[in-house]
Amino acid sequence: MSAITQVRNYLIVGGTAGIGKAVGQALVKQGSVVTILGRTQPKDFPEATFIKGDLTLARDAKALGVSVDASKLDTIVFTNGITGPAQRQVTAEGIELDLAVSALSRYAFMDGVLSKTGNQRFGAQRSPESAFKPRVFVWGFPGENMTATVGDLNAEKKYYAADSHHNTVVVNEVLVTYLAERDAGINVYGVKPGLINTGLPTKYAAMYLGSTVAHSIVGPLVNLFIPSPESYAENSVLPIIASPELENQNKALFAPSKAIIPSNPFLVKDGNYQKVLDETLALLKRAYDAKI
Ligand SMILES: NC(=O)c1ccc[n+]([C@@H]2O[C@H](COP(=O)([O-])OP(=O)(O)OC[C@H]3O[C@@H](n4cnc5c(N)ncnc54)[C@H](OP(=O)(O)O)[C@@H]3O)[C@@H](O)[C@H]2O)c1
């Protein structure tokens, strides 16, 4: 695929650390203009414009999406996320914390962005050189054929951190198709990074193996064998993120090898795509409407 050949304008939601920050730094080196959104401004990325924002509450995420000037953006990247706490926690809007921060916040943010019309519309005031539709990239973990607890995405009946995290993965796979179908003027892609050494893999391991094993055994192995976010950004993300070839690959999910990941069998059977989408949008509405 082709490398970036002209200046691009990116917003990275969750670009203050980890993969998002490394992707932003690699893009800046290539001559792109980058804005990052998160709670904490990193000290080592002065080239980026920083927007301070907490995405825990859906209403705040939507308000942030309304307030950003998306009209000059070529691309919005979502790399925000957490792993689930051992015990269920809920936001003030009544949403399980991992689902809220890692998945629902992205729906809410895009609700805000896509509410703008005319010359405030996402991408409306880009350089006339922009040869492609405005793009959205959704980082997650597609391709593992994960399932979701349909009917209990909010883990009100039963909470297990790993299951709830799988829910966030599936809800993000659904987001790719949902956004692409909601707005024919944009292209949307999902991205699976594989394991990248950001601190998150050790937290994942703790969800399955417990904190002691994760930190004493998995952590040191991660440091030895898993790629750094910087090398991942350079080698796997830059070659695709502004590629003209993606123009014809709307809704595609990309593996670390850049190959396209087939649809999750769980989502294509038993109407599960629609069930997950309906339940997610109902939770989003509930979050917006919550009296807090
Ligand atoms: N690393 C991996 O091995 C791996 C594997 C599979 C999938 N992924 C996916 O890739 C994405 C990025 O992962 P990562 O490893 O880069 O994660 P990370 O290093 O933990 O970074 C997460 C980002 O999310 C932001 N964030 C967290 N809570 C937030 C909140 N309440 N409000 C606003 N921003 C918030 C953080 O910024 P602040 O702290 O400044 O708010 C940070 O910029 C995630 O979607 C993850 O699920 C990662």
UniProtKB/TrEMBL annotation:
Q: Does the keyword Ribonucleoprotein apply?
A: no
Task: Give the UniProt keywords, A-Z.
Answer: Oxidoreductase
Matches recorded under InterPro entries = NAD(P)-bd_dom_sf, SDR_fam, Sec_Metab_Biosynth_Oxidored
Query: Which lineage ranks, top first, belong to the organism behind this chain?
Result: Eukaryota, Fungi, Fungi incertae sedis, Chytridiomycota, Chytridiomycota incertae sedis
Name the chain's protein: NAD(P)-binding domain-containing protein
On the tree of life, the source organism's domain of life is: Eukaryota
Molecular function via GO: oxidoreductase activity
Name its species.
Chytriomyces confervae
Q: Which residues cross the membrane?
A: none
